[in-house]
Amino acid sequence: MEPWEVTEETELCFPHLLNASCRRTLRPRSLSTLIYVTLSLVSLLTVVLNLLVIVSISHFKKLQTPTNLLLLSLAVSDFLVGFIMCFQILLVDGCWYLGDLACSLYFLLDYVITSSSVGTVVLISVDRYVAICDPLRYPARVTPGRTAVLGSLCWAGSALCHGLMLRDDVRRPGRRGSCRGECVVVIDYVAGVANFFLTFVGPVVVIVVLYVRVFAAAAAQARAVRPRVAAVAAAGQESVKVAVKKSEMKAAGTLGVVVVVFLICLCPYYCVTLSAEDAVVSASSAAFVICLYYLNSCFNPLIYAFFYPWFRRCIKMIVTLQILRPGSSETNVLETP
After folding, report:
1. Is residue 337 part of a domain?
2. What CATH number is given to the structural domain containing 268?
3. How many angstroms separate the CA atoms of 113 and 158, rounded?
4. pTM higher than 0.85 for the full model?
């Protein structure tokens, strides 16, 4: 065998198939190592952070409020995204070794889990809107039971929509593949546009509108408090002013973080998938935008949970194994010890 023939075979995903096999993506060893390590760390961080949220809310009864049940649903979907990233790590060199059916199921699970995550973020926005803009009727309108039903409908709707969208690829896996070792699904243009509006444009519009209205309501409440502040003693007056100002800044900061991170992580993915008449999504060629899409699941627990004081207390109790003590589930982690 000539030297050039050895080099040719080593570039193939399945060397024994010769012309029927896809080619590997050739990169410098240092770059490949960096990609493997980075994706592995992101996957591990996503799993660990969301697992902490899941354990915290599931264990401590004081945390099982409607809002936190939505955080739990979000953490479950993001936790699963962390595991799905392992498949993306396998595709770093451009080869899929798990078969055509596994490829189709991988994409189906990917769509269902990530869109459920986005849908849960929308539900969290609605929850915060009702809590701040209609606080008197919030306890009656938003109950744990209704929240659980909405969360379940979010998952069921996502599974139904994407199951229909990818039904042909699941029934006849590998029908669009041009060579062995390729993982690709095809979404027709109409379904791609519908998916774009349902899982990106719609959620972005709802989140932005609701958070803007929440911020406006918070600002209006702050202005309503100012006349009362004038009747308070000078020392107390100054402290209230500071508290109001911090509240306004916190609302603005939360809105900015939520919207900017959401758009940064999701925009590139949808720009790529809608760039052609038929959205051909190749897991190897679109590795960067897919991983950026996944990265949002790593940020979600940081944005929605990590900045809550109760979450830091829960982490301490979990790490020190205090949750194993009898009656620890009754601990009120909402109060500062």
Report:
1. no
2. 1.20.1070.10
3. 8
4. no
> Which residues form the domain of 232?
3-330
For residues 261 and 296, the answer to whether their CB atoms sit within 8 Å is yes
Asked, for residue 223, whether it belongs to a domain, the answer is yes
pLDDT single digits (tens) 36-85? 888 888 889 999 989 998 999 998 888 888 888 988 998 898 899 888 88
Q: Which residues contact 120 (CB under 8 A, 6 or more apart)?
A: 70, 73, 74, 77, 151, 154
Asked, for residue 335, whether it belongs to a domain, the answer is: no
* Residue 155 maps to a domain: yes
CB atoms under 10 Å from CB of 36, counted, come to 13
DSSP readout, 57-98? HHH-GGG-SHHHHHHHHHHHHHHHHHHHHHHHHHTTTS---S
Write down the mean pLDDT value for the chain: 76
CA distances from 177 to 100, 129, 173, 189 (A): 9, 46, 9, 18
